[in-house]
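Repro:
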Amino acid sequence: MTEQDLRGMMRKTFKRMDVSAVDARASLYDAGLDSLDHATLLLAVQETFGVAIPDADVDKCQSIGAIVEYVNAHRQ
């Protein structure tokens, strides 16, 4: 998974958000997502990339960069 893959997914999911303006290390909450948006994104990531993100690890996935790193580290 690349940062561009995730940004593309975010563009499709969050049409109101200027994904290109979001820094890869910035909190997605600071970028305008709420907890439901965050859960929706992580669900889509899990389904698309075949990686499970347990509830205990959700807090580790709070930025674009962190999600990409997590998925690449836990992908089978």
